[in-house]
Protein backbone atom coordinates (compact mmCIF):
# COMPACT_ATOMS: atom_id res chain seq x y z
CA UNK A 1 0.00 0.00 0.00
CA UNK A 2 1.06 3.55 -0.78
CA UNK A 3 2.30 5.61 2.20
CA UNK A 4 4.27 8.64 3.20
CA UNK A 5 7.22 9.01 5.44
CA UNK A 6 7.73 12.30 7.23
CA UNK A 7 11.18 13.00 8.52
CA UNK A 8 11.25 15.76 11.12
CA UNK A 9 14.65 17.01 12.13
CA UNK A 10 15.18 19.50 14.92
CA UNK A 11 17.66 22.02 13.50
CA UNK A 12 17.72 24.28 16.57
CA UNK A 13 21.11 22.92 17.55
CA UNK A 14 22.50 23.44 14.05
CA UNK A 15 21.18 27.00 14.07
CA UNK A 16 22.71 27.67 17.47
CA UNK A 17 26.05 26.23 16.34
CA UNK A 18 26.00 28.33 13.15
CA UNK A 19 25.20 31.45 15.17
CA UNK A 20 28.00 30.73 17.66
CA UNK A 21 30.38 30.22 14.74
CA UNK A 22 29.30 33.54 13.21
CA UNK A 23 29.77 35.34 16.56
CA UNK A 24 33.24 33.80 17.00
CA UNK A 25 34.17 34.95 13.47
CA UNK A 26 32.97 38.48 14.23
CA UNK A 27 34.88 38.55 17.54
CA UNK A 28 38.05 37.36 15.78
CA UNK A 29 37.61 40.07 13.11
CA UNK A 30 37.06 42.75 15.79
CA UNK A 31 40.16 41.55 17.68
CA UNK A 32 42.22 41.63 14.51
CA UNK A 33 40.97 45.15 13.69
CA UNK A 34 41.74 46.32 17.23
CA UNK A 35 45.24 44.84 16.91
CA UNK A 36 45.86 46.63 13.58
CA UNK A 37 44.52 49.91 14.99
CA UNK A 38 46.78 49.53 18.04
CA UNK A 39 49.83 48.76 15.89
CA UNK A 40 49.19 51.72 13.61
CA UNK A 41 48.67 54.07 16.62
CA UNK A 42 51.83 52.70 18.19
CA UNK A 43 53.91 53.24 15.06
CA UNK A 44 52.60 56.78 14.80
CA UNK A 45 53.41 57.50 18.44
CA UNK A 46 56.93 56.06 18.09
CA UNK A 47 57.61 57.88 14.84
CA UNK A 48 56.88 61.35 16.26
CA UNK A 49 59.75 61.59 18.80
CA UNK A 50 62.09 59.64 16.53
CA UNK A 51 61.45 62.09 13.69
CA UNK A 52 62.24 64.96 16.06
CA UNK A 53 65.50 63.30 17.19
CA UNK A 54 66.66 62.62 13.63
CA UNK A 55 65.50 66.02 12.35
CA UNK A 56 67.32 68.05 15.02
CA UNK A 57 70.46 65.86 14.81
CA UNK A 58 70.73 66.17 11.02
CA UNK A 59 70.05 69.89 11.14
CA UNK A 60 72.70 70.29 13.84
CA UNK A 61 75.29 68.34 11.87
CA UNK A 62 74.79 70.47 8.76
CA UNK A 63 74.74 73.73 10.64
CA UNK A 64 77.22 72.96 13.42
CA UNK A 65 79.88 75.53 12.55
CA UNK A 66 77.37 78.43 12.55
CA UNK A 67 76.00 77.65 15.99
CA UNK A 68 76.67 79.50 19.20
CA UNK A 69 76.64 77.65 22.50
CA UNK A 70 73.12 78.78 23.41
CA UNK A 71 71.39 77.52 20.24
CA UNK A 72 73.47 74.34 20.34
CA UNK A 73 72.36 73.62 23.90
CA UNK A 74 68.71 74.31 23.16
CA UNK A 75 68.69 71.92 20.18
CA UNK A 76 70.48 69.26 22.22
CA UNK A 77 67.86 69.73 24.96
CA UNK A 78 65.12 69.10 22.38
CA UNK A 79 66.86 65.90 21.30
CA UNK A 80 67.18 64.75 24.93
CA UNK A 81 63.49 65.53 25.64
CA UNK A 82 62.36 63.59 22.55
CA UNK A 83 64.70 60.70 23.51
CA UNK A 84 63.28 60.58 27.04
CA UNK A 85 59.74 60.65 25.66
CA UNK A 86 60.62 57.76 23.35
CA UNK A 87 62.02 55.73 26.26
CA UNK A 88 58.90 56.35 28.39
CA UNK A 89 56.75 55.38 25.44
CA UNK A 90 58.65 52.14 24.85
CA UNK A 91 58.50 51.24 28.56
CA UNK A 92 54.76 52.00 28.65
CA UNK A 93 54.12 49.99 25.49
CA UNK A 94 56.01 47.00 26.90
CA UNK A 95 54.10 47.26 30.17
CA UNK A 96 50.77 47.55 28.39
CA UNK A 97 51.55 44.64 26.04
CA UNK A 98 52.53 42.42 28.99
CA UNK A 99 49.32 43.31 30.79
CA UNK A 100 47.23 42.62 27.68
CA UNK A 101 48.93 39.23 27.29
CA UNK A 102 48.25 38.45 30.98
CA UNK A 103 52.00 38.16 31.40
CA UNK A 104 52.22 40.38 34.48
CA UNK A 105 52.45 38.56 37.78
CA UNK A 106 51.75 40.45 40.94
CA UNK A 107 53.57 39.87 44.18
CA UNK A 108 51.14 40.72 46.96
CA UNK A 109 52.36 41.62 50.40
CA UNK A 110 50.87 43.64 53.26
CA UNK A 111 51.10 47.30 52.27
CA UNK A 112 50.79 50.16 54.75
CA UNK A 113 48.91 52.72 52.73
CA UNK A 114 50.08 55.71 54.71
CA UNK A 115 53.76 54.90 54.02
CA UNK A 116 53.18 54.16 50.34
CA UNK A 117 51.08 57.27 49.67
CA UNK A 118 53.56 59.54 51.47
CA UNK A 119 56.42 58.09 49.40
CA UNK A 120 54.51 58.77 46.18
CA UNK A 121 53.72 62.33 47.25
CA UNK A 122 57.36 62.97 48.21
CA UNK A 123 58.48 61.79 44.76
CA UNK A 124 56.06 64.18 43.06
CA UNK A 125 56.61 67.23 45.31
CA UNK A 126 58.93 68.77 42.71
CA UNK A 127 56.36 68.43 39.93
CA UNK A 128 53.64 69.83 42.19
CA UNK A 129 55.78 72.85 43.10
CA UNK A 130 56.52 73.53 39.42
CA UNK A 131 52.79 73.97 38.84
CA UNK A 132 52.36 75.79 42.17
CA UNK A 133 50.11 73.03 43.44
CA UNK A 134 49.77 71.79 46.99
CA UNK A 135 49.24 68.13 47.82
CA UNK A 136 47.47 67.06 50.99
CA UNK A 137 47.23 63.48 52.20
CA UNK A 138 44.67 62.01 54.57
CA UNK A 139 44.73 58.37 55.51
CA UNK A 140 42.05 56.97 57.77
CA UNK A 141 43.60 56.04 61.12
CA UNK A 142 43.86 52.34 61.99
CA UNK A 143 43.57 51.29 58.36
CA UNK A 144 44.68 47.65 58.12
CA UNK A 145 47.55 46.78 55.76
CA UNK A 146 46.28 45.95 52.28
CA UNK A 147 47.42 42.78 50.50
CA UNK A 148 48.66 44.26 47.22
CA UNK A 149 51.74 44.49 45.04
CA UNK A 150 53.56 47.59 46.41
CA UNK A 151 55.55 48.16 43.19
CA UNK A 152 52.46 48.07 40.97
CA UNK A 153 50.32 50.07 43.40
CA UNK A 154 53.05 52.73 43.58
CA UNK A 155 53.08 52.83 39.74
CA UNK A 156 49.29 53.40 39.68
CA UNK A 157 49.42 56.15 42.30
CA UNK A 158 52.44 57.85 40.71
CA UNK A 159 50.49 58.03 37.47
CA UNK A 160 47.29 59.35 39.07
CA UNK A 161 48.96 61.93 41.32
CA UNK A 162 51.35 62.82 38.46
CA UNK A 163 48.38 63.45 36.15
CA UNK A 164 46.66 65.48 38.86
CA UNK A 165 49.78 67.72 39.09
CA UNK A 166 50.10 67.94 35.31
CA UNK A 167 46.49 68.96 34.69
CA UNK A 168 46.23 71.41 37.59
CA UNK A 169 47.91 74.78 37.76
CA UNK A 170 47.99 76.69 41.04
CA UNK A 171 45.51 74.37 42.64
CA UNK A 172 45.00 71.71 45.18
CA UNK A 173 45.53 67.99 44.95
CA UNK A 174 44.12 65.71 47.63
CA UNK A 175 44.88 62.09 48.25
CA UNK A 176 42.39 60.46 50.57
CA UNK A 177 42.59 56.81 51.59
CA UNK A 178 39.83 55.16 53.58
CA UNK A 179 37.92 51.96 54.10
CA UNK A 180 34.97 52.14 51.67
CA UNK A 181 33.43 48.79 52.68
CA UNK A 182 34.42 46.09 55.16
CA UNK A 183 36.31 44.32 52.37
CA UNK A 184 37.69 47.25 50.37
CA UNK A 185 39.80 50.33 50.66
CA UNK A 186 39.51 53.32 48.37
CA UNK A 187 42.11 55.89 47.39
CA UNK A 188 40.68 59.09 45.91
CA UNK A 189 43.06 61.37 44.02
CA UNK A 190 41.22 64.67 43.53
CA UNK A 191 42.42 67.81 41.83
CA UNK A 192 41.07 71.27 41.10
CA UNK A 193 42.46 71.22 37.56
CA UNK A 194 41.13 71.49 34.03
CA UNK A 195 38.67 68.58 34.36
CA UNK A 196 37.43 66.28 31.61
CA UNK A 197 34.28 66.56 29.46
CA UNK A 198 31.60 63.92 30.18
CA UNK A 199 31.76 62.48 26.65
CA UNK A 200 35.51 61.85 27.03
CA UNK A 201 35.32 59.94 30.31
CA UNK A 202 34.48 56.58 28.74
CA UNK A 203 37.51 56.77 26.42
CA UNK A 204 40.11 57.73 29.02
CA UNK A 205 41.20 54.19 29.81
CA UNK A 206 41.76 53.21 26.19
CA UNK A 207 45.40 53.20 25.04
CA UNK A 208 46.84 56.37 23.51
CA UNK A 209 43.81 58.49 24.43
CA UNK A 210 44.65 62.08 25.27
CA UNK A 211 41.78 64.52 25.65
CA UNK A 212 43.70 67.48 24.29
CA UNK A 213 45.21 65.73 21.29
CA UNK A 214 45.69 68.59 18.83
CA UNK A 215 48.97 69.78 17.33
CA UNK A 216 49.16 72.54 19.95
CA UNK A 217 48.93 70.02 22.80
CA UNK A 218 50.19 71.61 25.99
CA UNK A 219 50.76 68.55 28.11
CA UNK A 220 53.31 65.81 27.49
CA UNK A 221 52.54 62.12 27.99
CA UNK A 222 52.00 58.88 26.16
CA UNK A 223 48.26 58.37 26.62
CA UNK A 224 49.02 54.89 27.99
CA UNK A 225 49.19 55.70 31.71
CA UNK A 226 45.51 55.25 32.54
CA UNK A 227 45.17 52.16 30.33
CA UNK A 228 48.04 50.63 32.32
CA UNK A 229 46.57 51.79 35.67
CA UNK A 230 43.21 50.24 34.86
CA UNK A 231 44.72 46.86 33.98
CA UNK A 232 47.02 46.92 37.01
CA UNK A 233 44.04 47.57 39.29
CA UNK A 234 42.23 44.70 37.59
CA UNK A 235 45.07 42.23 38.17
CA UNK A 236 45.14 43.28 41.82
CA UNK A 237 41.41 42.43 42.00
CA UNK A 238 40.31 46.05 42.13
CA UNK A 239 38.89 48.79 39.95
CA UNK A 240 39.47 52.39 38.98
CA UNK A 241 36.74 55.00 38.54
CA UNK A 242 36.66 58.62 37.48
CA UNK A 243 34.34 61.55 38.05
CA UNK A 244 35.08 64.96 36.61
CA UNK A 245 33.74 68.38 35.81
CA UNK A 246 35.38 70.54 33.14
CA UNK A 247 37.00 73.61 34.67
CA UNK A 248 36.53 72.34 38.23
CA UNK A 249 38.63 69.21 38.53
CA UNK A 250 38.65 65.44 38.57
CA UNK A 251 38.69 62.57 41.03
CA UNK A 252 40.25 59.24 40.14
CA UNK A 253 39.38 56.50 42.64
CA UNK A 254 41.18 53.23 43.12
CA UNK A 255 39.33 50.45 44.92
CA UNK A 256 41.21 47.47 46.21
CA UNK A 257 40.20 44.39 48.20
CA UNK A 258 41.91 44.51 51.59
CA UNK A 259 42.70 40.80 51.50
CA UNK A 260 44.12 40.75 47.96
CA UNK A 261 42.85 39.34 44.66
CA UNK A 262 39.45 37.62 45.09
CA UNK A 263 38.90 34.29 43.31
CA UNK A 264 36.59 35.85 40.68
CA UNK A 265 38.11 38.92 38.97
CA UNK A 266 36.33 42.20 39.68
CA UNK A 267 34.78 44.17 36.84
CA UNK A 268 36.35 47.53 36.05
CA UNK A 269 33.72 50.20 35.82
CA UNK A 270 33.49 53.91 35.15
CA UNK A 271 31.17 56.59 36.42
CA UNK A 272 30.24 59.77 34.66
CA UNK A 273 30.83 63.01 36.49
P1 LIG B 1 49.10 60.81 29.53
O1 LIG B 1 50.43 60.16 29.60
O2 LIG B 1 48.81 61.46 28.22
O3 LIG B 1 48.80 61.68 30.70
P2 LIG B 1 47.09 59.05 30.61
O4 LIG B 1 46.56 57.76 30.09
O5 LIG B 1 47.67 59.07 31.98
O6 LIG B 1 48.10 59.58 29.53
O7 LIG B 1 45.92 60.10 30.55
C1 LIG B 1 45.13 60.16 29.36
C2 LIG B 1 44.51 61.51 29.22
O8 LIG B 1 43.49 61.69 30.21
C3 LIG B 1 45.46 62.67 29.42
O9 LIG B 1 46.20 62.96 28.26
C4 LIG B 1 44.48 63.79 29.76
O10 LIG B 1 43.91 64.31 28.58
C5 LIG B 1 43.40 63.05 30.57
N1 LIG B 1 43.62 63.15 32.03
C6 LIG B 1 44.19 62.22 32.83
N2 LIG B 1 44.23 62.63 34.12
C7 LIG B 1 43.66 63.85 34.14
C8 LIG B 1 43.39 64.82 35.17
N3 LIG B 1 43.68 64.60 36.45
N4 LIG B 1 42.77 65.98 34.79
C9 LIG B 1 42.45 66.21 33.51
N5 LIG B 1 42.67 65.35 32.49
C10 LIG B 1 43.28 64.18 32.78
UniProtKB/TrEMBL annotation:
Record family assignment: In the N-terminal section; belongs to the phytochrome family.
Q: What species was this sequence derived from?
A: Chloroflexus aurantiacus (strain ATCC 29366 / DSM 635 / J-10-fl)
Q: What is this protein called?
A: Circadian input-output histidine kinase CikA
Boundaries of each Histidine kinase domain copy? Answer: 41-260
Measured against the full-length protein, the chain present covers 327 to 599 of 599
Q: Which domain of life is it from?
A: Bacteria
Amino acid sequence: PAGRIFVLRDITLFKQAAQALQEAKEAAEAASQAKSAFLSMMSHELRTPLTAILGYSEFLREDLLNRDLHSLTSDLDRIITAGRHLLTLINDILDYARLEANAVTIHPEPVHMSTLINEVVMTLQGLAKQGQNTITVTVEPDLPPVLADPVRLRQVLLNLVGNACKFTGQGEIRVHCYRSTTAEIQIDVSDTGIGIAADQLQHLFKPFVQVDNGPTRRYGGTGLGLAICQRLCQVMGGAILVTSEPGRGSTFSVRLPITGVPSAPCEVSQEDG
